[in-house]
Amino acid sequence: MFIRRVVSTNGVTKKKYSYLNLVESVRTDDGPRQRLILNLGDLQIDRSQYKALARRIEDILTGRRSLFEIDQQIEHHARRAADKIFVKRAEEINSETADDFQMVDTRSFNVSRPRSLGAEYVCHATWRQLGLDEVLREEGISERALPLLEALVVARLIEAGSERWTKRWADELSALYELTGTPLGRSLQSYYRGTDGLYGCKEALEKHLADRETDLFSLDESIVLYDLTNTYFEGGCAGNPKAAYGKSKERRSDCKLATMGLVVDGDGFAKYSRIYGGNQYEADTFCHVVGELEKHLLKHDKATIVLDAGVATKENIAWLKDHEYRYIVVNRGKAPFETDFDDMSVIKEDKEKGIKIEVKRHERQGEVYLLVKSERKRLKEASMMSRVEQLLLERLQYYKSGLGKKHHVKRYPKVVEMVGRLKERYSRAAQLYEITVVPEKDGAEDMVKAVDIRWKRKEPRYDEATKGEGTYVLRTNRLDLTDEQIWQTYVMLGRIETAFKDMKSHLGLRPNFHQKGERVDAHMFISVVAYHLMHAIEHKLRLAGDSRSWWTIKSTLRTHERMTIEYISKDEEGTRYNNTLRLNSRLEPAHLEIYTKLGLTGKPIARRLLTQKIGSENNPHQVPLRE
Q: In whole angstroms, what is the distance from residue 496 CA to residue 511 CA?
């Protein structure tokens, strides 16, 4: 593509007009010619920017990411031009069907069976690109059962719910089975059996997906991130030995929990998952998971493993050293150096967004300890500490004022107990104060009353605590990395947090209504497979310069539907026919833009017309299906 300035003259007024044309060179029988793509109008840009504008328009249309920084004015013009071209292309696709003129009774028109199609089309294309049907066939899954297993996963991406809801969604609300073919069994029990069958292929699926995604997207497996999360159950879950009470990360400690350990690479692609009991101690899962992970990695070199403080125990770090792994972890406990915030180096700063990262490097016995101070983290911790401190002091003041009022607790042992519980509840703030309950002097031994509650801030400790707000220490045996590289690698852990958030918010990981152990594990595993599809879609869009989330993509594609139009027609001889036309809704530019960036044509299913002669009850004449 390139831009050409055209000058035309009005034949009457002789006034000259200038405008820009976006054209492309094409080969014809008469030799090379220029074909007009779009009239851009009279854009006021310098001639030296023509090439940059044409290149940027082509990048947007083909879904390529620009390698250079784009001028804002050029970006604006390119976006407007690309939107107009998407509109033209959508109209061309919608008008590709051959003409078919009929005499029709307009009062007989009826629209029925509208079904969502856009998101299903994208998910189905990604399912096939990842080759999931192939591995399921190798695991002995019946060909006629494959559409149902795909529906269990795709439903998590579009309308997450139970097997009962998935059945209703697939049968009544979605056009997915028109894309995949109809499964042999569609009863509710078929969906439960499909869930069990999918989980039975867990090891093969995770191995296949890890290999396939690495090949498709040229992934670098040198960075491995590991973390755990838990989710809660509805009901007693007596038939599940893994269900147990524990510390819920969703503040649902009233429910039994199950824990999921997940390994992702530096690009956010899941590599391995495992389900544990709800009261599982995080650090105890690590060695086993890394051992299993080695079976899923293509590279033979030891990867760099990134861990949060919850898993980075002394024993786990020793295990990593013994097995010659490289690691970057958050240091637990006291750092082996004197904390000093002088002479720290700034590795990242953005005053508009309030970002400032300062670091100081210390090397000890073949390891690097990196002291990190984050301005955003400091402000967050200061705000949290201020709130906790305020709650502690307000409650202490309430207890103190109650000592002189009727119907308030005054007995010394009981007041001491109340203050003790308060210190336990707000421990972070309480350790910065010296709190004393003063008993009366002359009271009976078993009826001693408290007469005062006093508290005083421990100034040196308070200053030390506030000085250390927003700081943490990273520990690694990667001596070859710079300070910035160590920090950048560590913050990749945010990608695994994003994975957990997506699974819980959009992919149906919670809540879990199953009561049997294997069904619970299968329910959680389906969310992991759905995450593979979702992340592959988002990754392809990011490569095309589109940072929209799956939630936004799904909402945009919601208006692309499959529907049936029924009408009565009559031929030249007066014979009447019932016609049933199954077709897609009109393709919109927003749909085509997404499909283009994902490498799809925008034509998910061809239209189908079924014609039946009216009036022949015993042997009706049925015209074969035609496109």
A: 20
Query: What is the C-alpha to C-alpha distance for residues 123 and 530, in angstroms, rounded to an integer?
Result: 9
Q: What is the DSSP string of 157-185?
A: HHS---HHHHHHIIIIIB-HHHHH---S-
Structure-token match 């308030």, residue found: 408
Hey, CA dihedral for 596, 598, 600, 603, is it positive or negative?
A: negative
The DSSP string of 218-283 is: T--TTEEEEEEEEEEBSS--TT-TT-B----TTS-TTS-EEEEEEEEETTS-EEEEEEEETT--GG
Which of 302, 308, 300 is closest to 328 using CA atoms?
308
- CB within 8 A of 434, min separation 6: which ones? 455, 456, 457, 458
Q: Where are the alpha helices (DSSP H) in 403-481?
A: 412-425, 427-430, 459-467
Q: Contact, 519 vs 195, CB < 8 A?
A: yes
CA separation for the pair 38, 45 (Å, rounded): 17
- Could you give the CA distance from residue 460 to residue 144 in angstroms, rounded to a whole number? 72
Please state, in angstroms and rounded to a whole number, the distance separating the CA atoms of residues 52 and 42: 17
- What's the burial of 179, exposed, middle or buried (CB within 10 Å: 0-12/13-18/19+)? buried
Which bin fits 257, alpha (ψ -120 to 50), beta or left (φ > 0)?
beta
d(CA 454, CA 434): 8
- The pLDDT score that the predictor gives to residue 362 is 92
Residue entry with tokens 């010619």:
33
Q: Torsions phi, psi of 57, nearest 5?
A: -60, -45
CA-to-CA distance for 461 and 445, rounded, in angstroms?
36
Q: What is the mean pLDDT of each run of 10 residues along the chain (627 residues)?
A: 84 82 84 84 84 83 70 82 78 67 88 94 95 94 94 94 92 94 90 93 92 86 81 77 79 82 87 83 74 60 81 87 88 85 88 89 91 90 89 93 89 92 91 91 76 91 83 92 91 84 82 79 91 93 88 94 92 86 90 91 88 63 41
**Tokens in use for 22?**
């976006």
Asked whether the CA dihedral 335, 338, 339, 343 is positive or negative, the reply is negative
108: CB partners within 8 A, 6+ apart: 566, 567, 568
Judge if the upstream peptide bond of residue 511 is cis by omega within 30 degrees of 0. yes
DSSP 55: H
The whole-model pTM stands at 0.75
- Residue 114 is encoded by which pair of tokens? 């509208």
At residue 562, what is the residue type? R
Q: Which helix (H) or strand (E) holds 306?
A: strand 304-307
What are the backbone dihedrals phi and psi of residue 60, each rounded to the nearest 5 degrees, phi first? -65, -40
Residue among 70, 83, 85 nearest 1 (CA): 85
Closest CA to 623 of 229, 466, 612, 500: 612
